[in-house]
Amino acid sequence: MTIQEMLAKMNPQMLAQGLAKISSSLSPEQLAQAEAAIKAMGSDTSAALKNLDSAQLQAELQSNPALLKQLAQNPELLSKLQSIIKNK
Description:
Distance between the termini: 23 Å
Order of helices and strands: HHHHHHH
Number of strands: 0
Structural class: mainly alpha
Radius of gyration: 12 Å
Largest sheet: none
Strand content: under 5%
Shape: globular
Number of helices: 7
């Protein structure tokens, strides 16, 4: 099973919990890279996120599980985030 398949089967609350766990274990540089990757997505969703600072972005993703699930279904974003996490 791929990460994309796992994420597709997760409910929004599980995704939010996973985001919190991952973000707490990343370095500040990795968090900045992840933030940039999320903001760089070329969708209407990312346009609303571009003006948020990192704390606001994390709060928005944790409080908006539908948005988090939408981002989790983006294969390009997942690929970028996987490469950031692998460089831990």
